[in-house]
Amino acid sequence: MSDLIFAATCDLAGKVRGKAFPAAQLDKRLQRGVGWTPTNVQINCFDCIADSPFGALGDLLLIPDQAASVTADFGTRTERFMLGDIVTLEGAPWEFCTRALLNSALSRLEASGGLQLLAAFEHEFQLKGTSALIGEGYGRGGFEEQRGLCEALMAQIEAAGFFPDSIMKEYGANQFEVVIGPEKGGRAADAAVILRELTRSVARAHGEAATFTPIRNPDSVGNGVHIHMSFLHPDGSPATHDPDGPCGMSKLTGAFAAGVLKYLDAILALTAPSAVSYLRLTPHRWSAAFNNLGFRDREAALRVCPVTSKDPASIARQFNIEYRAADAAACPHLALAAVIHAGCQGIEDALAAPVPTQEDLSLLTPDDLRARGFVRLPETLENALDRFMQNKTVTGWFPEPFAEVYRAHKESEIAYVAEMDATARCAAYEGSY
Ligand code: GLU
Ligand code: MG
Fold it and tell me: Parallel, antiparallel, or unpaired for β 78-88 and 302-304?
């Protein structure tokens, strides 16, 4: 039997796709990759192919990266995959390679703020099987029921080279939350992709099926992806915190946060990119419905997180802000790229730090909201996509053909679910994510 390694990309649909090659060819494949097709980028999460400017033309290479290599041993079986970069035949980064898109956002952060990013993704997922237990939000019983799965998952995360932080039985039915430690730059997004894949594989190995779908039915709790971010100066010292700054934010963090909130309605189509994402982004779900900064408030798009450290040096390292308007229908690289670009725009335009909210914004009238600079975030994917396409500042952050291709991709997805009611849409997405 030949050992196979799956070379993979996480694409515009947030799906992990690729091709496998015999492990014995690894040295060659690290140089020459596997062949890849431009139109693959238009395969949506329902296996329909959206309008593609490439048609049947063109060739690309998907080059596996040894720094994002996973070998997951399941006793009777081993899964091996490596995330990779899509490049042209000449070796240049391809305009739709999500890792390349994130790299260019990270370069902008370095150029505009002199900053390096540290990020940690917090994921919620649900097991599709039924549990006889009820009342197990945060419960020990609910956790013990899946202790084996949780322990296996944390072990696989560690074996893949990441830092398992915590795992718990979340509030929702069969819902769990898993957190891994921060990683620098693009590795944080690689970690998020790897975590999702490992969760699905570990669940399968335990006779379960895991879903990261944004919401399983219109009345249920959502499965969020929360992206924690902090910054480092070039010498590695922390740059996020200033004890005298608003809510403890440094000037750069405040400007970054202001940029994220200013452009939030236009980047949502990239961070919460499914038709059902907007069932989750509604008030009182502890997700995000407005473009507000919360100070220790979980009902905010962006949150200043509490720190538990006591001494000033540790506080400065632990201090972070959390983007909560993302879900796992989004490719982590693309979501992070969009958030970073928005933050960079805030830094470059020297925006003033946002004033935090500590109240229920859904109680304000539209006039009051407007007067205070808040917008209700888009309530449908169609609307989010329009805001993205209409905001030339935002589309300008990406290579020239990106926005049009992304629009066509998402429109094909919208067309697929157009005739479905909300329940059927949830079921369709649950099948894919
Ligand atoms: N489930 C919520 C969401 O959709 C998050 C709950 C929490 O604060 O962990 O984002
Ligand atoms: Mg949670």
Answer: unpaired
Q: Where are the domains of the chain?
A: 4-96, 102-432
* pTM of the complete model: 0.97
Q: Which residues contact 350 (CB under 8 A, 6 or more apart)?
A: 255
Tokens of 14: 């947030």
Over range 286-299, report the average pLDDT.
Answer: 89
Q: Cite the beta strand spans of 271-311 per DSSP E.
A: 293-295, 302-304
For the segment 105-149, what is each residue's pLDDT rounded down to a tens digit?
999 999 998 999 999 999 999 999 988 888 889 999 999 999 999
Give the containing element (helix H, strand E) for 60.
strand 60-73
Measured in Å, residue 40 CA sits from the centre of ligand 2 at 33
User: What's the 291 CA to ligand 1 centre distance in angstroms?
Assistant: 16
Query: Span 36-46, mean pLDDT?
Result: 96
Superfamily of domain 4-96: Glutamine synthetase, N-terminal domain (3.10.20.70)
Ligand 1 atom closest to Cα of residue 214: 4
Contacts of 124 (CB under 8 A, 6+ apart): 170, 172, 175, 176, 177, 212, 222, 223, 224, 225
Q: Please report, as a single letter, which amino acid is at residue 200.
A: R
CA angle, 158 then 159 then 161, to 5°: 65
Say which CATH class 102-432 falls into: alpha beta
Residues 6+ apart with CB under 8 A from 253: 231, 239, 240, 241, 242, 245, 321, 353
